[in-house]
Design goal:
Blueprint lengths: L2 E6 L2 H6 L3 H10 L6 H8 L3 H13 L3 E8 L5 E7 L1 E6 L9 H30 L21 H18 L23
């Protein structure tokens, strides 16, 4: 059974996610079970490399073998899936040896990838828009600053998860990213 949410509390799991390919694999395997070969084809990577990364995620318990299937050629395909739909990192991991640097490096890498993907989408959207301004206009962005206390934050996140669940579609063409963090200088009231 796939969990709705999983909190990473083990430094070995965090270490396993210090590689960008493993983060991509884990994100993809939250959508549906896939073989290492299918992942390699999707990412344009060597199957042996992708298989190695899947095994590292399996070793630390972030993915599991969901099922096997034998092909007509007698090859046994192993389908893996992430253990949860959503992952968070326990902030206390930062206190462990090497934890803070791994958390920061992983977050920066993820934010850089999001930025790169977004800018590429903006450029594509501009390229598809005609000189008269007509065209695709496919990128959307906005910054919404909500100042919520702990109780209201949890209520908001619960509603957001329910909304996301209504619109989840592994075949969709849009990425949606959400960040929530304590406001610097916040009062903590709420």
């Amino acid at each position: 059974m796939v969990l709705e949410s999983y909190t990473i509390r083990d430094i070995r799991q965090l270490k396993a996610l210090s590689h960008a390919t493993r983060v991509r694999i884990l994100a993809t395997l939250t959508e549906k079970p896939m073989t290492a070969k299918q992942l390699a084809d999707l990412f344009g990577e060597e199957p042996a490399k992708t298989s190695y990364h899947v095994k590292q995620l399996l070793k630390v318990g972030l993915v599991e073998l969901k099922f096997t299937r034998e092909t007509q050629n007698g090859i046994v395909e192993k389908y893996y899936q992430a253990i949860a739909k959503e992952f968070q990192t326990d902030p206390l991991l930062a206190a462990q040896s090497g934890g803070r640097s791994r958390l920061e490096a992983g977050l920066v890498r993820e934010l850089n990838q999001i930025q790169s993907d977004f800018l590429r989408a903006c450029q594509t959207s501009r390229d598809q828009t005609g000189k008269d301004g007509e065209g695709a206009g496919t990128t959307h962005h906005g910054l919404y600053r909500l100042r919520l206390g702990a109780v209201r934050r949890e209520a908001f996140l619960k509603e957001l998860r329910a909304l996301v669940a209504r619109y989840e579609d592994a075949e969709g063409d849009y990425a949606f990213h959400f960040l929530a963090y304590p406001h610097p200088g916040g009062s903590g009231a709420g």
